[in-house]
Amino acid sequence: MPELPETETIARDLDRAITNTVITDVVVRHADVLRLVDPVTLRDRVRGATIVRSWRRAKLVVLDLSTGDRLVVQPRFTGALLVDAGSLPEHERRYATVTFTLSDGRALHYRDIRRLGTVSLMDPAAFETYTSALGIEPLDAAFTATRLASMLDRSRRAVKTVLMDQRYLAGVGNIYANEALWRSGIDPSREARLVNPLQTAQLRDALVAVLGESIAARGTSFRDYRDANGGRGAFAEQLDVYGRAGHPCRRCGRRLIGTHAVDGRSTVFCAGCQR
Q1: End-to-end Cα distance, the chain
Q2: How far is CA 12 from CA 7, 44, 81, 145, 227, in A?
Q3: What is the 3-state secondary structure of the chain?
Q4: What is the pLDDT of residue 197?
Q5: What's the confidence (pLDDT) of residue 223?
Q6: Domain 145-269 indexed as CATH 1.10.8.50
Q7: Which positions are catalytic?
Q8: Fold for domain 4-131?
Q9: Contact, 273 vs 254, CB < 8 A?
Q10: Is 210 within 8 Å of 183 (Cβ atoms)?
Q11: Which residue has better confidence, 223 or 250?
Q12: pLDDT of amino acid 66
């Protein structure tokens, strides 16, 4: 968390808000979030650069700069990129680890309460090396049921674990893996190779649908996720299983089970209608 819908929302917000602005200064308050660059080098390489584009890859927010460098932010659990025109609440500024001053007087803060996320500066070759290890995007037209079947066919791992493996499928995390598996009626712990072709097609469609619906709702906020304007996502109200352990299944009425046995992460499922 944030997963694909949340980072997609942040990237779209930033693309609208700060494209064509110039970075005039950088202040690093907590250098432990930096990767591949130190504070002095970061400042030297981005000062005077124009932000050309903001976009998403997997769970990363990517800012393309006019210099050819890319600022690559992985928010992980408590990170957020917040545009500040002077009205950002002080409790949000308090956890700013890196602040980019912009040419129009605004600031872009990377706020991270637990400092588990990262801010990297990559040239094109470094970015290509880093992202070449990531799998296909689930919202890409090339992500078909056949492509998903090729990921599942020979794996003895739990199907949920395969869905969350970024080497195969980029951007899917715990929330949306739980939701897609419930929608398609598949037990998260089932061996991936035992998912039949019909179920694979249903799973692919469920995954694409839930990601799209969450993007439309601007993501899922429980505690720390915020969009680039400091707002909360509304998709939590639409979740069918994640965060609902002990509540009745919305499909069959049986009590939902919560466990950490599948992959060490919170897994919620219905033993009555997920097989």
Answers
A1: 27
A2: 9, 27, 12, 27, 10
A3: CCCHHHHHHHHHHHHHHHCCCEEEEEEECCHHHEECCCHHHHHHHHCCCEEEEEEEECCEEEEEECCCCEEEEECCCCEEEEEECCCCCHHHHCCEEEEEEECCCCEEEEEECCCCCEEEEECHHHHHHHHCCCCECCCCCCCCHHHHHHHHCCCCCEHHHHHCCCCCECCCCHHHHHHHHHHHCCCCCCEHHHCCHHHHHHHHHHHHHHHHHHHHCCCECCCCCCCCCCCCCEHHHHCCCCCCCCCECCCCCCECEEECCCCCCCEEECCCCCC
A4: 97
A5: 78
A6: yes
A7: 2-3, 59, 265
A8: N-terminal domain of MutM-like DNA repair proteins (3.20.190)
A9: yes
A10: yes
A11: 250
A12: 98
- Chain segment 148-186, per-residue pLDDT in tens: 999 999 899 999 999 999 999 999 999 999 999 999 999
Average pLDDT, the chain: 96
pLDDT digits (tens, 9 = 90+) for 232-263: 999 999 999 999 999 999 999 999 999 999 98
Six-digit token pair at 33? Answer: 């979030």
Q: Which residues contact 196 (CB under 8 A, 6 or more apart)?
A: none
Do 199 and 185 touch, CB atoms closer than 8 A? yes
**82-96, 107-121, 129-143: segment of lowest average pLDDT:** 82-96
**Tokens in use for 213?**
């619906």
Q: Count of residues for the chain?
A: 275
| 260 and 266 Cβ atoms separated by less than 8 Å | yes
Q: CB–CB of 227/9 below 8 Å? A: yes
Amino acid at 254: R
Q: pLDDT (tens digit, 9 = 90+) per residue, 8-64? A: 999 999 999 999 999 999 999 999 999 999 999 999 999 999 999 999 999 999 999
Tokens read off for 122: 């990559």
Region for residue 142 given its phi and psi (left: phi exceeds 0; alpha: psi -120 to 50; beta: otherwise):
alpha
Domain ranges of the chain: 4-131, 145-269
